[in-house]
Amino acid sequence: MVRIQLREPRPIPQSLTNAEARGIALAAQGFAARRSASVSPAHLRRLLDRLSLHQIDSVNVLARAHYLPAFSRLGAYDRAALDALAWGAKRERRVFEYWAHEASLLPLDLHPLLRWRMARADRGEAGWGRLRAFATDRRAEAMALLTRLRNEGPLPASAFESGRTGWWEWSEAKSALEWLFWAGHVSTATRRANFERVYDLTERVIPARVLALPTPTEAEAHRALIERAARALGVATEGDLRDYFRLSPADARAALAALAEEGVLLPVAVEGWRRPAWLHRDARASRRVHARALLAPFDPLVWERARTERLFGFRYRLEIYTPAARRAHGYYVLPFLLGDRLVARVDLKADRQRARMLVHAVHLEPDAPADSREELRAELIDLAGSLKLETVELPGESQLITDA
Asked: Is the pLDDT of residue 297 over 70?
């Protein structure tokens, strides 16, 4: 394990080296501490609170995207515990689904902070264009589905009509249900085995104590969301901060101005960054950064590609939708974090039928440390074991046996 030695925590100056900014960002993202030998639901709750969200994605080449950030930071854990926090019995729930960065799992205390977005969707002012008609001309159709849910209980989109209801090619019923979801009328009761969303009335999913919390004004909510983003990022540009919860420039700038005036955000210049940056007043670089992690493409440390390049000098693109002949690194490529640097990219796939992790390609960075390949092999074995895969198959090498 590589250990990065940083200076003792101290008051942050008005300018930072890129290495200092990187250390602050890694600490804010939960990479400063050693992985725990045993990960409890409390560890998961604290991580969710630190990051504020886990992005959901339909791609399941290796594992569902929302499962990977916890492993990257905490190590092996029981994924059923995360499922229970998200989709378990109502009394066990600590997170809910909504559109934040993208489709996301969010701590329940963020529900009031996103009601403005629900209200805008209900008025037809937010959400994808094809959904907005359900706020006006086609509202009666959506309300009819809401009535059916009220009478029959939780249902997936496939229960409303036949036809394809995939992630992106939606039926009319799926579109109406997704508008109801945007507008806060329904939430996700659970997920089926194929990860299909099962909808139910929001009041039957979100605990009453959360629904009873006061609704802040839009301006108050935007300030709180920018502050949460700043805590999660440590140091960031305006664009980084508003991207975290996908706020508009106008909404973000007003919030930034207010937080700067209050002294919550401090202006800093970061070496090599072309734009001004903001530092959360509580941000600190840990004395030691312990990091050895494969990062999902939708991990908040790397999802904003321009920020990844600024912090790590690492140009990263997801090539799923790139024709195979034009891919530079592979189909589902995870950056490999070692210490405070991104040192490699690994194209991975889980062959669940044969309990294998297939490593299609490994691309080391030109300046990767000498032990990068050895550390990567160890991380691949650990990740495979956590996914219940028994072997790791690397290109041109014999199989590696895990403890799965």
From this structure: yes
- Rounded distance between C-alpha atoms, residue 297 and residue 334, angstroms: 6
Q: Which two tokens stand for residue 115?
A: 């009601």
pTM value is 0.91
What is the C-alpha to C-alpha distance for residues 153 and 92, in angstroms, rounded to an integer?
Answer: 20
For residue 259, the one-letter residue type is: L
DSSP three-state, residue 32: coil
Instruction: Output b/e per residue, 277-301; b: 16+ Cβ within 10 A.
Output: bbbbeebbbbeebbbbbbbbbbbbb
Q: Are 184 and 144 within 8 A, CB to CB?
A: no
20-67 pLDDT tens trace: 999 999 999 999 888 888 999 999 999 999 999 999 988 899 999 999
150-177 pLDDT, tens digit each = 999 999 988 986 554 444 446 889 999 9
CB 331 within 8 A of CB 61: yes
7 pLDDT above the threshold of 60: no
pLDDT tens digits, one per residue of 327-344: 999 999 999 999 999 999
How many angstroms separate the CA atoms of 235 and 281, rounded? 10
Local structure of 350: helix, strand or coil: strand
Three-class SS state of 91 = helix
Both tokens assigned to 381: 């074995």
Write out pLDDT tens, residues 378-392.
Answer: 999 999 999 999 999
Whole-angstrom distance, CA of residue 317 vs CA of residue 297: 8
Spatial separation of the C-alpha atoms in residues 259 and 246, rounded to whole Å:
18
Distance between CA 96 and CA 181 in Å, rounded? 12
- In 3D, which of 376, 374, 385, 393 has the Cα closest to residue 342? 376
In 3-state terms the chain splits into helix, strand, coil percentages (rounded to 5) of 40, 20, 40
Nearest-angstrom CA–CA distance, 159 and 190: 14
Tokens, residue 177: 């249900």
| Total count of residues recorded for the chain | 404
Please report, for the chain, how many H helices and E strands are present, in that order: 14, 18
